[in-house]
Amino acid sequence: MTSLLESFVNVAPYINSLTLDDMAVTVTDTEKYLSFVRGKQVPQLVNAGDAILEGSVVNDCLKTGKRIIKKVPAEVAGFPYVACGIPVKENNKITGAVSFVISIDKQEKLLSLAEELSSGLEELTQSSQLIDDGSEKLFEVSNKLSIKSNESNVHIEETDGILKFIQNIANQTNLLGLNAAIEAARVGQEGRGFGVVAQEIRKLALNSSESIQKIEEILKGIKESSNEQSDIISEISLITKNQAEAIKNINSSVQQLYAAINLIVEEAKDLTNEE
């Protein structure tokens, strides 16, 4: 064993206490493991004297002469970890390797939770957007209904004017019939036929007045219903407007949260990926 490798073997038991992450330390020469100091969460993977495992980080360091970082899934050793190794050189000759094995079980769980949360927020964002679009359409429909309701009220007002005009004609016709009846009575037997016509004119005028009154009552009811409908539509428009604004705010907050979660996902990936 070279002096530098011996120094690494002597220092290995103290390294875990000097770092924030729990880790195991491996020291090898070019053929076998010289030391393996396990961590609190990293079990004993190899023993001193064991031959270097093919495909391990230290094996790759010895072969390439370069710093190697590998992410190892849980299926290999029963827990996920990241191993970082460097070749040890003395007099420009590789005499061994040193590696740190760091458990990333907590990071993997964090990544899994973050990805699940990200997926849920993505669905929530899409649903929120659909509700937002629906609220805007509902607000537009409410505005159109309000416009149509106001137009109906205008038409009813115009109808009132026409009815008043017809009522005025009926009154004048009734007055004309009355005058005709008076004139027929004055002329006696000769105006008898004229009196019958005058009576029918008055009867028609009275019937017209009664019909106009009924129509006015119907229109009054329609107008009252239309006003109530207009008030309800206005209330619905206000509610849908407030709802649309609230949903927009919620949608914006969800999108910000979604972006934050995605950032957490990326950070969690960085914790577990090779660098």
Strand order of the largest sheet: 2-1-5-4-3
Distance between the termini: 31 Å
Tally of separate domains: 2
Q: Just give the CATH class of the largest domain.
A: Mainly Alpha
Measured by DSSP, the beta-strand proportion falls in: 5-15%
Summarize the biggest pleated sheet: 5 strands, antiparallel
Protein name: Methyl-accepting chemotaxis protein (MCP) signalling domain-containing protein
GO cellular component, one term: membrane
Domain Methyl-accepting transducer: 157-275
Organism: Proteiniborus ethanoligenes
Care to describe what's here?
InterPro entries: MCPsignal_dom. Residues 157-275 form the Methyl-accepting transducer domain. This is Methyl-accepting chemotaxis protein (MCP) signalling domain-containing protein. One of its GO terms (biological process) is signal transduction. It holds the Pfam family MCPsignal. The protein is rod-shaped. A five-stranded antiparallel sheet has the order 2-1-5-4-3, with helices on both faces. The chain is α+β, with helices and mostly antiparallel strands and 275 residues long. β4 and β5 (93-103) form a beta hairpin. The chain folds into two domains: 3-103, Beta-Lactamase; 109-272, Methyl-accepting chemotaxis protein (Helix Hairpins), CATH 1.10.287.950. It is built from five helices and five strands; from the N terminus they run αββαβαββαα.
